[in-house]
Amino acid sequence: MSNYQVNNTNINALISWIDQGIVAIPEIQRPFVWKPSKVRDLLDSLYNDYPVGYIITWQNPDARLKDGTVSHGKRILIDGQQRVTAIMAAIAGKEVVTKDYSKRRIKIAFNPIEETFEVQNPAILKDKKWIPDISEVFKQGFDTFGFINNYCQQNPEISNNELNDILQKLTSVRYSSIGVIELAHTLDIEVVTEIFIRINSAGVNLSQADFAMSKISVNDLHNGPLIRKTVDYFCNLIKSPSIYDNIVQNDQDYAQTDDFSKIKWLKDYNTNIYEPSYSDLLRVAFTFKFLRGRLSNLVSLLSGRDFETREYKGEIIEDSFEKLHDGVLKFVNETNFKRFIMILKSAGVINAKLVRSQNALNFAYTLYLLLREKNVNDSHINQIVRRWLVASILTERYSGSPESMFDFDIKRFESHEDPMEYVRNMEAGELSDAYWKNILPANLNTSVSSSPYFNLYVMSQIYDKDYAFLSKSITVQQLIEERGDVHHVFPKKYLQSNGYNNRRQYNQIANYAYTEQVVNLAIKAQSPKEYMEKIKSQVGGEPLKIGEIDNWNDLQENLRMNCVPESIFDMESNDYQSFLVKRRELIVEKIRNYYNKL
């Protein structure tokens, strides 16, 4: 049996199918992304009888209900949404949702004399040759005879008969052919997911999460649209609280729901530490509630799949939507989210750029929600989540195959009566002395300033409330919050003038330190021996020349917290390599002490 059938329909039938709910346009998170000019071009192609491609639909598998009857699934439009939305906007006069969640019409104008289409603009509205909005012509009861008489009186260069023929051609657009590829409803969910991703890979890259959102949004019976909107609006409000009023004005039905009351706190909240996408939210909610890591399994469960019998059952659909909704609401809960952010801050994560692995953050929040569900003591939750987050960054645990690791870890955290026992087991296997003595120092041998290991060092400095290099009153945290930059302990220009011309040499992260700009400007291109001599003189009572440190104890403490060896006082260019080796050792020691204190 073929995986699909290819048929033809027309625009009129397609609009009718959508109005009747036979084909459902999934309200995927992305608002209408086509530019109005692309809608214009689509109408022009239809008018000239050019092919406009295929749409692809898939009917949900038939699910067996408790009473023995079969529920026939609704067809989902899995490819062609933008084209269909464009047709509904231009011909049926439907509003589209913009990226800031305001609604607007896309009005396509038509010039019958030149037979050209254009996006409506102020000049067109003043020009009597144009029909400013073609959707008026397609409305039932449109007075064709009266329109032709009026138009030809204002534009005598075209006759009534000529205009009539052109209007007939325009309205016949509704009978233009469009191809429909119908995927067999017997297809395995994983196959349909793969098809969905592949056919969209040439445009906006879509994923398992996109397909899951499609599945969610078309299931009216189990509050799918409500769940989809809660996910969607949360992820956009966390980034742009200003869209709150647009949501209230343009989606009044949703604004009255209990779900909306649970996310409205975002309008007064700002964070740049963890801004989840809808893919992140779905992954966390799914992994936490279903104890599974593969998002493709969510699509299967929402379709009612029984993994043991390979049948599709109505009760599995109902249970899956209920669990997912609960997971989403736990994710967006104000107390949960804000407390998770506080845990991140308590580990030294004060800015999103400090944790480049979104999957590490996602699993940390998944773990937090699971531990709360298991009624683990609050202080234990804080400690476990902090340590696991930092450990997963140290080992790059979720960088290779995150879904399989999510699946592995969530099942073991669930099965351990003492979750900290699983953390200790992981530490024994992956954070042994060999890791700290060999692997981490090797990982620090890089020039990439966004390295997770350098970021962990910075997090340890924030955690310890360390001062910036050669500063007495300005902390590393304050510099990061004010978008301060890292500078070089061995100045870059000094190294370049002494033969270190390769970026990978002078930009080693073991040569980086957060430093006040005024301190960096005072150091200029001097060797460490030169500028540290000036520091020694001001510690000995002479006027300040570099920074504010004026006593020996403060200087020693500052070098210690910035992992700078005391041998820096005598170092010149030929000491640079030994400096890097020693500083890496000190950075490793600091990160290890920081981890043990979490």
From TrEMBL:
One Pfam match, given by its short name, reads GmrSD_N
Q: Which residues form the GmrSD restriction endonucleases N-terminal domain?
A: 14-215
Known InterPro entries for this protein? GmrSD_N
The protein here is known as GmrSD restriction endonucleases N-terminal domain-containing protein
Question: What is the species of this protein?
Answer: Salinibacillus kushneri
